[in-house]
Amino acid sequence: MDRELLKGSTPLLLLSLLCEGPMYGYQIIETVRHRTGGTYTLKEGALYPALHKLEATEFISSYWETQDNGRERRYYAIQPAGLAFLSAKKKEWNQFVDMVQAFVGPKA
Amino acid sequence: MDRELLKGSTPLLLLSLLCEGPMYGYQIIETVRHRTGGTYTLKEGALYPALHKLEATEFISSYWETQDNGRERRYYAIQPAGLAFLSAKKKEWNQFVDMVQAFVGPKA
DNA sequence: TGACGGCCATCGCTTTGCGAGGCACATTGG
DNA sequence: CCAATGTGCCTCGCAAAGCGATGGCCGTCA
User: Fold this and answer.
1) Which nucleotide is nearest to B23 (CA to C1')?
2) Domains of chain B and CATH, by start
3) C5 C1': nearest CA residue
4) Residues B63-104: pLDDT tens digits?
5) For D21, which residue's CA is nearest its C1'?
6) For B8-56, what is each residue's pLDDT tens digit?
7) Is residue B105 classed as helix, strand or coil in its secondary structure?
8) Do residues B48 and B4 touch, judged by C-beta distance below 8 A?
9) Cα distance between residue A90 and residue A70, in whole Å
């Protein structure tokens, strides 16, 4: 998958995923990897900065949770502002896809 | 339109457009602007570098043509290698869209 | 003659993904 | 018992690409 295409779609992906419930970083990576059948592996160097940025803008929030074995995990949960932002982003995404489709021609 | 989403889609757009016949820079910008109803205005700072890069890799070629009024225009035309590349890019594009769609949910 | 528009192009900035690296700890198997 | 692997967090420097600004050239038309 061309890395350049991915640019800008990461927040969309993350917010969409977090709509299904809180998740922690490693889990997000694995989930994406499995759901795409390995086609797309979200990289840590892309994930964590994106997550932190979404948190800084209060679109998501985070909290640490201790597992049974004593180790900690950082969960991220979507916030109301994030839901609103996601809705706007989705609209933008659809516009974008339609636009490109108009030039490239439909699915072919 | 979020600039980040556009990344990586520019070559796809350009090659698709040039499939319809040779065009010159300014014409490309105007064509995109009109066809999208003004939603998307391809910027010069994005177009020309992209065009030159496509030419450097021999996916397109260029030639100068003199207009009736004596002024010159630089036309770009797609090359065989460009057609092949376009075909691959299209496939990648569709994969990408399907992937994101799978997380975001269909058009809704 | 001066403003506007067609037409080419470049430069520095920003953003974002990536690869690599680093740290910490639990589990498992030889 | 110790090494390898897996879980889990993170940051840093790099490269790529779009953007805004800028600049230059030359027709046309008021």
Assistant:
1) C7
2) 3-104 (1.10.10.10)
3) B26
4) 999 998 889 999 999 999 999 999 999 999 999 999 999 999
5) B45
6) 999 999 999 999 999 999 999 999 999 999 999 999 999 999 999 999 9
7) coil
8) no
9) 38
